[in-house]
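User: two proteins, same treatment. go.

Assistant:
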Amino acid sequence: MNGPSTSAPAPSTHIFVHELRRQRTGSKVRFLCYLREYDAAKGQLLVEHAYPHDATEPARASIDVNMVLETARRDLMTDGRWLNVIGYVLSGPQEKKRKSTNAGNAQSTSKEVPLPIVQAVLLWDAGAINVDEYERVLQKHMEVRAQARVMLDNACKAEARKEQEKKATIPKP
C-alpha cells in the first residue's frame, strides 16, 4: 500500500427542501424537514418545509428510509416530528397530485408534479429546534458560500488571463 486511503465518503451539501428539485441525481444532501406522513408498507416518508415563507405551499419530498429502518428509532417515524436527513437524490417518477386552476378557466384540473426522492443514509431527530433561527443561519451560510464561489471563479479567471498574457509576450523561436 502506498499511503492512506482517500476513499472517504463524499460530504453532503446542506440545503433547504425546496432546493432538492435542483440537485443532480446522486448528489449527497443534508436538510431539515417536517414529517407529514410515514408509509410503513413502502418505507417512505412524506416530508415538507414551509420555506421560503412566501411560497404558496410547503416544499415536499419523498424520503426512502428502507436502508435505515433497522437502525432508526421507531419514534422517529412519528408524524409531526422535525427530522435531519442525510441522503442521496434519486431519479425516478414519484408524483403527487396537486390541484391547479387556470386563470381563464373556472374549473380546477389535476396536474402531476414530480416529487423529489431522497434515499436516506442517516436520519435523526432535530430535537427542540428553533426553526426560524435555523432558516436564518442556513440562508446566511448559503449566501456566504455563493459569494465565496464567485470570488474563487473570479480569481481563477484572473489567473487564466495572466497565463494567456504571459504566453502572448514570450517570443517564439
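Protein 2:
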Amino acid sequence: MIVVDTGVLYAAADRSDPDHDESKELLGIHATEQLVATVSVVVETSWLISSRLGLTSDDWNRVVEFLEQDHDLDLGVVDASIVAVAERLNVTTIATLNDRDFRVVRPRHCDAFVLAP
C-alpha cells in the first residue's frame, strides 16, 4: 500500500511537469499495490488537472453539440467531454470500462475509438 500526494499524481498526468518521468516511474513501481489518496488530494489533483490540462472553450462547444444533436446516443457530459478532448488531441484510444457509450460515438478524427482494456 502506498499513500500519494497531489504533486505525484499531477506530475504523472502532465508530461510538461519537471517531475513527470519520476512520478510516472514511481506509480509504475507501485502499480501492484493499493493506491491511497485522501479526498483532499483527489479534489486538489482534479482541480489542477482541470485548470491546467482540462477542457477548452472549443471542447465545451463540442460537448454541447453532442448533448443537443445526438439525443439517440444518450451521451452524458462526462463522456462527451472525453470525446471532445480525444478529438482535440487526436487520440484514438480511450481507457474505459464503459464501452457501450464509446462504441456508438463517431468521432471526427477517426472511424471509431479503440477501447482499452
